[in-house]
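W.,

You were right to be curious about this one. When I first looked at the sequence I had no strong expectations either way, so I just let the prediction run and decided to look at it fresh. Below is the sequence, 122 residues in total, followed by the output.
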Amino acid sequence: MRARTLWESFGFAFAGLRYAWRTQRNLRIHAAIAAAVAVLAMLFRFDALRWAILILTIAMVWAAELLNTALEAIVDLASPSPHPLARIAKDVSAGMVMLCAMASILIGLALFGPPLWALVTR
């Protein structure tokens, strides 16, 4: 289906986000963690660069989760019955999300480590 207008394109995009939000528990977990991290970043008064890194990191994890959801739907459409290649595609896609989530933890440690350490050693 092709969008006739720009607004219709945005409608399709928001429909995809709504679908993922309703059906993907991990996306909601990522959102809760992102909200908590954003509050912590406000408390630590992050500068623009730290905010940019934080926002890009959150977007990376969300994008990976959305891509995983899309790939799982495509695999289910192409292979309704279990197939070894379908499983590989789904496992690799899930691995992508895990890799992004692990990278986000390391980025979070780099961003929040120094101010947390300063707070603890006061």
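Here's what jumped out at me. The radius of gyration is 18 Å. And, maybe more interesting for your project: The domain at 30-120 is CATH 1.10.287.3610 (Helix Hairpins).

Coffee later to discuss?

I.
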